[in-house]
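Task 17 of the worksheet. Students: predict the tertiary structure of the chain below and write it out as structure tokens. Keep your answer in the requested format; marks are given for formatting as well as content.
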Amino acid sequence: MRFGCPKCGGGAVIKRGYFRTKWNGYQRVPRYLCRECGGGFSSHTLRATYRQKKPALNGRVLKLYASGMTQRRMAIVEGVNRKTIVRKFLFLALQARREHTRRLNAGELKSERFQFDEMESFEHTRLKPLSLPLAVTAQGKIVDVKVSSMPYRGRLAELARRKYGYRPDKRREGASEVFQSIAKAAVPNSKILTDSKPAYRNWIRYSLPNLTHQPVEPKPQPNPARRANLDDPLFQLNHMAAKIRHDLSRMARKVWTTTKKPDRLQAHLDLYIAFNNNYRLAI
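Model answer:
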């Protein structure tokens, strides 16, 4: 045996029969017995998918969640209950966040140039806006994205205040978490590009003092027939934001699908990070 008992850590393990799984053609899975603690386990006990009845569904659910499909439609396509899709979603999002954190700490997302900006969405109703600070590398990898609440504004601000009361502004806290991820991926003499929003200068100066901040001023387009993004220094960021709007059903504009809970939106974004960055998850 190349592995010990997962219960006590002992190495005195002997083989003790097998069982068959239904989801992959009744494959034989060996069972083992620990002589030290008397506990039994199998080779599947050591997997992240332990006790799952449909682990073969995980890979397909991951791709469908990153392809603009809703939970109900996934359940119809795969022929399962919607609750099964939700459980798969939460499991995959947890694995994706762990893998992304591991790669950040291991320095696998190093880059010299980063691009940062905020997207906006809402929870349940447009009266509850959300901010999504997003950072990408010059190579198109997502460094991080966080969900945070933001105060009311615009034409619906007065109505939102009367209906839901005070709404905290957590945009700086969310951006600070993204900046921490950037710091792990930065190398000496790294640059971070943003638009000309005045708040970004103070945020970056406080959270990333070792990075060079380069605000990008909007340029007028003299020729309407020419592509506007041809010389856009924030092209990777804007392109990624457009992909998120397209590939995440809850982020699309003017659709019925909306985010009911901010933590589920964060889980969906974590899943998309793994999909976009081509992570191999233990699923």
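Marker's comment: Residues 133 and 179 are 9 Å apart (CA to CA). The two ends are 23 Å apart (CA to CA).
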